[in-house]
Structures are given as structure tokens and as C-alpha cells.
Amino acid sequence: LPYLNLLYSALPFPLTKSIPMASITLLDLHQYHRVDRSLFARMVIQLSRDPAESLLAMAFWFWLKDKNFPCLITRILRASDFVVNKVIDEALLCLNSLAPDQPMPPIADIYFTGAAMQSYVPLNMMHRDKSLTINGIKYFLKRVCSCIFTDILRQVTAGDHPEHVLYQSLNISGFPHPIFGDVTILDLPSYQLFPLDHTWMWGWNGT
Q1: 56: nearest Cα among 140, 151, 154
Q2: DSSP per position, 5-72
Q3: Contact 77/150 with Cβ under 8 angstroms?
Q4: Which burial class, exposed, middle or buried, applies to 132 when counting CB atoms under 10 A from its CB (0-12, 13-18, 19+)?
Q5: Neighbouring C-alpha atoms within 13 Å toward the C-beta of 25
Q6: Which strand (E) or helix (H) includes residue 194?
Q7: Which DSSP symbol is given to 145?
Q8: Cα 141 versus chain centre, distance
Q9: Could you read off the pLDDT of 31-81 as tens digits, one per residue?
Q10: How far is Cα 57 from Cα 28, in angstroms, rounded to an integer?
Q11: Helix, strand, coil in percent for the chain, rounding step 5
Q12: Nearest alpha carbon to residue 40 among 76, 5, 90
């Protein structure tokens, strides 16, 4: 259908219309990212955090993990609401500091993140080349977060999207973002196939 072709061309990741050599369904992705989805649901449902800010925080934590820093998501999953909120706030502080005119936040202002990681937060690395850092975080925002949290986002934006319409784009307030730009989030079926991209699957083996 013409409108589906337009949607395919607008996405930052390629959806597969036929079975490729190596592919994974959205349902499998949900299972693989079950811990990440559990934390995200807690953030936007139980803690009533802003969906756009929560997506950005998750993308930031994925980026940190990809840079071989300790996985914050698993470390704060069972933390108190107070700690989770603090770590989210600190993630947003780090992200907002990537604006062109913003300095690095003081280490004291990201205490809970460092404590949860049991490591330092790589502020110097982040600010050494802001555009490179922004592009790295955008990669996880657009290629991972945009497809693994859609059903959860639909729940918290139900007032804006009362009907479940497959391939409908969800409008998430806060995007386009002044630093990270826009993101396309489509309501996809659980059987939707994605090409298996080893750069963000972190050891996926299909089991």
C-alpha cells in the first residue's frame, strides 16, 4: 500500500516486509528487552514521568552500556522510587548539558548515578565531542527505544490515541527535541520483523 511505503521510507531503521536471512520479531525484541521495558513502564506509569524525557533517559543509559560502562538499568530496577527519580533527573541534567552553550554539570549533581554505577560518569568523554555523543544517543533513541516501548507509550498517551491503529505514528509531546531532534514511533504488530543488528543486540542468540 502506498501509505505503508511512505512509513517504511520515513523510519530510521529498516522494517522487513519479507523474511531476511537474520531477523527478529517485535515480540522477541520485547522479551529480549524485558528488563528495560519493566523499568520504562515503572517510569512512565508508576512514577508518572514524562514519556519523552523517559525515552531520552533510556537512550542515554543504553549509550553508556554500549560504551562499556555498568548497566544502570539493571542496577536501578529494584531501587526505591526516590533513587530512580534522582537517577532520571541526573540523566536529563547530563543530556541537557550537551546543548552548545551548556557546561558540564558538577560531579556532585550526578551523585546518585555514580553511586548506582559504582563508577564515574564519563562527562569529559561526553563533552569532548558533543555532536558525536548526541549522534550516539540518537542512535539508541531512534533504533531501539522507538520500537521496544511503543505499547507502553500507547497506554500513557491513550487520551491522544483512543484507537489502536497499526502503523499509526504516536505523537509524543516533547519531540522534536531541541538537542536530539524528532523520532518516529509506529504502533507495530507483534509479528513485525526487524533485521538483526548486532550493534545493539548485546549478545542476542535467538534463545
Answers
A1: 140
A2: HHHHHH-SSPPBSS--SSEEEHHHHHHHTHHHHHHHHIIIIIS---HHHHHHHHHHHHHHHHTT---H
A3: no
A4: exposed
A5: 8
A6: strand 193-195
A7: I
A8: 4
A9: 999 999 999 999 999 999 999 999 999 999 999 999 999 999 999 999 999
A10: 23
A11: 55, 5, 40
A12: 76
Q: Residue 48: which of 92, 97, 88 has the closest Cα?
A: 88
201: cell is: 543486540
- Which residues lie closer than 8 Å to 183 by C-beta, 6 or more apart? 12, 55, 141, 142, 145, 146, 172, 175
Q: What is the mean pLDDT of residues 109-119?
A: 96
What whole-number distance in Å separates Cα of residue 73 and Cα of residue 160? 29
Question: pLDDT band at residue 200, thresholds of 50, 70 and 90?
Answer: low
For residue 189, pLDDT beyond 70: yes
Confidence at residue 176, expressed as pLDDT on a 0 to 100 scale: 97
